[in-house]
Each structure stands twice: as C-alpha cells, then as structure tokens.
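User: Could you walk me through two proteins back to back? I'd like the raw sequence and the structure tokens for each, with a short line separating them so I can tell where one ends and the next begins.

Assistant: Of course. Protein one, sequence then structure:
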Amino acid sequence: MSELKTVEHVEIERYLGTWYEIARFPQRFERDLVGVTATYSLLPDGKVRVLNSGHKGRLDGELRSAEGKARVVDPKTNAKLRVTFFWPFEGNYWILELGKEYEYALVGDESRKYLWVLSRTPQMEEGVYNELLGRAKEKGFDISKLEKVPQKQA
C-alpha cells in the first residue's frame, strides 16, 4: 500500500473548536451514536483536549461523551497527532485533507481502518462530500465502508 500523505501544514489554533461528524468507518466505540461532534481546545501544556459527544440511537437520545487528549507527533506539519482516551492506549489521528478555511477535514491513519469526514457545520454540500470521497479512495481507503452520520438540521 502506498504511503499515506497528510496535508502540508495545520495551524492547530485554527483547527480548534467544534467539528461535526458527517461520515465515518464504523467503530465499536461509536456504535449507535448519531449527532456526533468533536470539540478541540488547547490545554496549558500545549496538548489538545478532545471532547467527543453523540446521542445514543437518535438525535434526541441520551448524550454520551468521552474526553481525551491529543498531542502532535509531527511538528513539521502538525498534521499527525496521537489521541488517547484510555491511557496508555493511543490512536493515530492524521489530517489528510483540510479546507482552505478549515471548513472541512478528512481524518484517518496509515492502517486505513479509520476514516472520518468532518465539517464545521452539521450538513456538508454534496459536491464537497463527493470530492472528499474521491480523495479518500485515491488514498487507498475502501469508501464503501463509510456510513453517514445523522445530524440535526442547521
């Protein structure tokens, strides 16, 4: 499998804030969650606080949250991070595509077992979504595994 390239540079401060999960590869830790968001904020030690939230089963279902930390492992690009929710287990978080205005992101890792399509808004234009799917496919991801994540209307 070819080397997985990330974006050339990420301004961490611009990446902070809330992202809506538009689509994902199914993962055990997100099973039955809809309306999923990830909110990133800077910690005093330079790491990033990660707060993932989603509703169980339906958009008005019980809110579930998990808090973790991320650290940059490639300071040249800031595009490769390691995230931990349950120490000492860490996972890769690679920013593969990023909108010019940080309006969307495609996140995965070199194993190609993880993939997320993220947006700053609860809905994403179909054209942008399809473009990101094409780029993911070019990068070697099996996009047939992607499942859309229901979000509340903006």
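----
Protein two, same layout:
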Amino acid sequence: MSSASITTPIRREPELLGQTVVVIGGSSGIGLETARRARAEGAKLILAGRKPEPLQHAAREMEALRTKAFDATDPAQLAQFFRELPAPIDHVMVTAGRPYYGRLLDMDSAQASRALSERFLLFLDIARNAAPKMRPGGTLIFMGDAGGRRPALGNGAESTVAVALPPLIANLALEVAPVRVNLIAAGFVDSPLSASVLGGELEARRNQLRATLPIRRVVGPADVAALAVHIMTNTALTGATYDIDGGQQFVGA
C-alpha cells in the first residue's frame, strides 16, 4: 500500500508590503508597469505624470493613494510635489526626462545646454527634494539609456549624457546615504514611447531585434519593472548602473 504525499504551497509575504512607492512617469510604459509590479508586491502607490487623464486611469486601476499631474522638469513644481507628500516614503522611481537627438553643431547654445543638462538637473532636484522624506534603505531609481552610449551622428548629446550618468548616480548615493540611489540603463524597450517615436517603422524594428538579440525577443516594460522592484527590495544595492537591453550592446543592433 502506498501513500501519496501532499505538498503544501509555500506562501511568501509580498516584498513591499506596507511600503510607499512614488512613480514619476507612472501613467504609461515602464513607469506604469513598475507601479503594477510594486502594487502586486503590496506597495502603496503615489503616481505622478504630465497628463491628468491617463494618470487618473492608472490611479483607479491600482488604487493609488494620490496622484499629481505636473512637469517634473520644472524645479518649482517638483519641489512643491515633494513638499506636499506625506512622509515617510520608501522608494521613488523616475522615468521622466527625455533624450535629445540631433547634431550637436546644429544646436544653438540654449538647445545644447538643455540637451546636456536637463536630466542631470532633474536627478539632482529629485534627490534633493525626495531624500529628506525617505526611510533609510529606500531607493531612488532613475532611468538612463544603455544604447545611447555609442557615438553616432545625431546622438552626440545623448551619448555624452549616457556615459556621465553612472558617476552622477554613484556620487548621489554617497551624498544621500543611507537612502540608496541606482540607475537602470535600458536599450530598446517596446513601449508607447517607442511607438510614438518610430511610428510605422516600429514593427520592422521589433523584427530586427527578435532576429539579432541574444535573447531572441524584444525587451518590454515588464522586464524593466521587474528589475526596478528587485532594486527596491534588495537593500544591498546602491550607487550602481544596471543595463537591461537583451544583449543589444553586444551585437550593435
């Protein structure tokens, strides 16, 4: 006579249970997927973005504590946003800030200054305003561009910024410790932003990447979100840059 063993599923506590996650750029793409994953891990959410309508839709889906529609690159609006937040908060994920493309010599001084400094100043302003409200061990997570590091015509500003962001992140990690600071550097991500940039060329780009990337698929927002939540939960990670591009940088795709 044989007896069948009964396996009891192992239950684990959600890794962000009781923690508050702020997502700036949380109404679409990578920010929205990060908010979804953080919520699934038990986090309470505060969402911010430029456009009120998609922001409210995301907030209803994830039962966000609060939302705020504003331009994060405006220092006064950004300072007000953090000033009004209830403390303490645990993690801040930032997908705001966009790359600038075009030949450097075709930019006037004002355009070049903005292209080279906008994300630097945004990251500094967020660190300055967010860190005093954060619990020790929480993290600021910023988005960078792995593919932008390669020099190319029309990519001068972006490649300059892309290689300069990792040391900025490392220095911020020292200055705001024990709050942690990390950078996610993504390659092509199949997101609404990519769709808006590529338009009718989007499917051809997807097919090219499926054929050439070592992972044989396109990186999506959920991939980046999984990394972001891991950085939130692993309190040994700070001052680092994490590439997520499916091997794009190795094959020059």
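The longest strand covers residues 134-145.

Let me know if you want the two compared in more detail.
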